[in-house]
Structure formats: structure tokens, C-alpha cells
Amino acid sequence: MGGPAAHRRFCLCVLGTVGALFGSLLLYGFFFDPWQLFHQPWFRENVFINNARFQNAGLINSHDFDSAILGNSMAENFSAFEAGQKLGGRFVNLSMAGSLFSERQIVLEHLFRKKKKLRQLVISLDHMPTYPAGAYNQDMPPERFTFLYNHNPFDDFRLYFDIRLLRCWNFSKKKSCWDEIPGTARVKSLEELYQWFPYYVKAFGGVKAWCGWTKQSPPFKAFLDEIIRVADIVAQQGQKDIWTEKFLAECRNNSRSSFEQHLLSIVTAHPETEFLFFFPPYSRLWYAMQEQYYVSYYKSYQLFIEDVVRAAGNLPNVRIFGFDNQEFTADIANYKDQSHYHKDINAKLLRLMAEGRGLLRAENLDAYLQEIAGLAADYDLRAVAAELQSCMN
Q1: Is the sign of the CA dihedral 54, 59, 60, 65 positive or negative?
Q2: Paired strand residues for 275
Q3: 3-class SS at 132?
Q4: What is the CA radius of gyration of the chain?
Q5: Would you say the C-alpha torsion 384, 388, 391, 393 has a positive or negative sign?
Q6: Which of 80, 302, 309, 345 lies at a C-alpha separation of 20 to 30 Å from 122?
Q7: Nearest CA among 232, 345, 237 for reference residue 284
Q8: How far is CA 56 from the centre of its chain?
Q9: Residue boundaries of the structural domains of the chain
Q10: Which residue in 361, 150, 129 sits closest to 259, CA to CA?
Q11: Distance between CA 152 and CA 147 in Å, rounded?
């Protein structure tokens, strides 16, 4: 049996082996760095992983830009190159599908820590009245990714303690290498990193395209059935869907406090950066369903617009845009569902922003709200429902 010295040597040997393995893993993570958290690629092509909540940290840490786009799926199809052409600056699109304002605050705070100067930020103002300030998307719990955006760069290595990533040590082009890692795909271009177009291209084109898409998405058929149901109730002047005043007040408070806590606080802290906020222009069909039936939901949307403009519309570094009165919103051929518009609309929105069209201020706010309410009230729901009914039958 060995003595104390032998035991010490054994323990030191075990600790040294574990340390060497651990160090090798850290060295691998730093050198290969598939998410580009520490640097752009060395000795391999510049490709990305299209899980925005993780990849955005690498884009912010390792890439050079002075302007950004941040939203949810309504903003993912913006071209960063086109944004730079029309608005000026070097843009990157950091939009995260399904993101709430609380998640965007995390990204924005990290963005301002890492970049000495940010010229412009284009941010979508999505109406989500049932989420209170501080709420997160439960499909992606914040603890899974927020460590990438804190003040400590060393805990970023946690992302690389996934044995599945080791299989892709050479950034293999084999699709199976990345299929095992949920929510990831290998993308070569920053322009296409988070875009969902043209995957849904067959869903665009109007009623026939929508009917055809029900074969790809059974839940979408439920939405089309809901259009028919609501149109029938409206035609018969039936009971409207009205919330209680208490619930409406709660929704208004949720929307207002989420904007003020998660976005407005950043705006006021960074007067050197220009913020271009816009309300994503859902289809007029959807707003017609709200104005004509889901009355209180539409009212909460109008109150959200009003509260944002009153709170931030006069700040010198803020421009707020509303596009619900644009003609393209009346044509469902421009949409793959009630809200998600064609990539061409993203390009049009950039053009409108560059031209200063759709700008909302305190002095034109009431007229804008009255106009969009009138357009939604006059929209012929029954005609669309009849086409859908015929097509689906």
C-alpha cells in the first residue's frame, strides 16, 4: 500500500487529468467558437446558426455594425443591406421570433455595452396586451440564454458544454450534424440568417393560397373557420365580443408598462441613438375582425398606439410609424395569415420610413386612429368569408 505521498500523487494526477480535459474543452470552445461569441471564424468559412437568442450574442460581440433591427417574426424578413441603403449606416437584423419586450431589453442593454456608438435602431412595437411587464416567452425560458448577455464573458462557455456541438467540431456541412441541436440550422449569409421567407411562399397569393395552405397547417384551417364564424355573426348583427372594463384597463396597463419599462428606459438613457419604432401592419382583414367583433381587443390596440405616441413621440431621438392605413394592408394576397406580410412589404416599410411617411405625432394621432378604425369598420368581411367557404368546400 502506498503512503500519503502516493495518495497525493494520485489525487494530483486525477485533478491534472480532469483539469487538462476541462481546459481542452475551454480551448476548443474559444478556438472553434461556433456561435462566434469570442471572435469571427478562424480557418473556416463564415457561417452562422439561426437560433437568434443564442446567435445574436455572437453577432454583437464579434461583428462590426452601427445600426440594428430588432423585433419578432414581423421583422425577421427585413434586409439589413437594404436598411443600410435606405436609412444609412451598417445594419444587422437581430429579430427574435416570438420575442417580448423584456427579451429585447436584454439584447439592447448588451448591445449598448458592446458598441461604442449606435446610429439607429429599428424596433417593432407588437401589441401583446395579456403579457405584463417582466414576462418572458415560456417557449424559450430566459435562463437558457440570458447568461450570454450579462457582464461576465466567462460563463458564455456554458453554451459549449454540449456534447452534440463537439460532433460538429469542423462545422460539418452534413445536415444531420445540426439536426440534433433543436432550433438550429447552418446559414451562410447574415442577410438570410433569421428570414422565414421563402419557406412560406406558397401561403401568399390570397384566398386560394390560404385554402391550399390548410393542407400544410391544420391550425391555419381553424383560423379560416374563425373568419367565417365572425363574418356570419357580424352580418347578422349578433353579439360582439366585449371585455370587461377592468380587463381592458389591465391590458392597457400591461402594454404601457412593458413599453416604458423595457424600451422607453433605454431610449431615454441613450439620446445619441435614433430609435425608429413601428407598429407592424397586420392585414386589414384581421383589424376588421377586431373592430367589428373583437371590439375590446381593437380598443386595447388603439390605446397602446396612443400611449406610446404620448410617451415617446416628442422625444428628439424617436420616430414612431404607423402603417395600418396603407393600401397594401387591404389585400390578403400580401399576407400568409392574418398578420405576417410578404418580404416585399418589409422593403416597402423601409422605404416609407426613409421618406418619413407614416410618422405619428401627438398632433396627427387622433386623425390616424379615426382613419384606421374607419377602414377596419368598412372592410367587407362577408365577401372574404364567402370566398373562403367556397374554396374550402
Answers
A1: negative
A2: 121, 318
A3: coil
A4: 25
A5: negative
A6: 302
A7: 345
A8: 12
A9: 33-192, 201-392
A10: 129
A11: 8
